[in-house]
């Protein structure tokens, strides 16, 4: 089927296969009203992204948000989440201290090299 003459679909920019518009998610910002990647490619990209550090942090935040909203387990989850938040806070403090120490070491090295 020719992708130029038919207005019922388009080529996916990821897999380069011509597919019907039903196989694309809606996106009002696009001129044709659909995403440039088909649903299959979009799902594959999401799975790959969720395995990256940035993706896992966002996925954790969504899971945390969901657990807080669940009614029956709210008390148990809030205790667990407070403990997790405390550990995250402690790790952030340690990270800040390490960064400060790194800056100090770099300054000492610069002074030593002069």
Could you explain the architecture of this structure?
The protein is of the alpha+beta class. The protein folds into 2 domains: 9-47, no CATH class; 52-113. 61% of the residues lie in helices and 12% in strands. The protein contains 3 helices and 4 strands. The strands form 2 sheets. It has a two-stranded antiparallel sheet. It has a two-stranded antiparallel ribbon with strand order 3-4. A hairpin with a 6-residue loop joins β1 and β2. α2 runs antiparallel to α3. It is elongated, with a radius of gyration of 24 Å. The termini are far apart. The relative contact order is 0.06.
Concise structural overview:
This protein has three helices and four strands; from the N terminus they run E-E-E-E-H-H-H.
Write the layout of secondary structure elements.
Blueprint: E1 9-11, E2 18-20, E3 24-26, E4 34-38, H1 39-50, H2 53-69, H3 74-113
Antiparallel strand pairs: 1-2, 3-4
Question: What descriptive keywords fit this protein?
Answer:
single chain; 114 residues; alpha+beta; 2 domains; two-stranded antiparallel sheet; 3 helices; 61% helix; 12% strand; elongated; disordered N terminus
């Amino acid at each position: 089927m020719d992708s130029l003459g038919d207005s019922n679909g388009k080529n996916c920019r990821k897999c380069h296969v011509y597919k019907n518009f039903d196989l694309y998610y809606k996106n009002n910002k696009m001129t044709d009203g659909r995403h440039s990647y088909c649903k299959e490619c979009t799902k594959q990209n999401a799975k790959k992204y969720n395995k990256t550090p940035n993706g896992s942090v966002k996925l954790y935040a969504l899971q945390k948000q969901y657990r807080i909203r669940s009614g029956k387990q709210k008390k148990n989850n809030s205790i667990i989440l407070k403990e997790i938040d405390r550990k995250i806070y402690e790790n952030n403090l340690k990270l800040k201290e390490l960064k400060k120490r790194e800056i100090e070491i770099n300054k000492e090295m610069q002074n030593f090299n002069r």
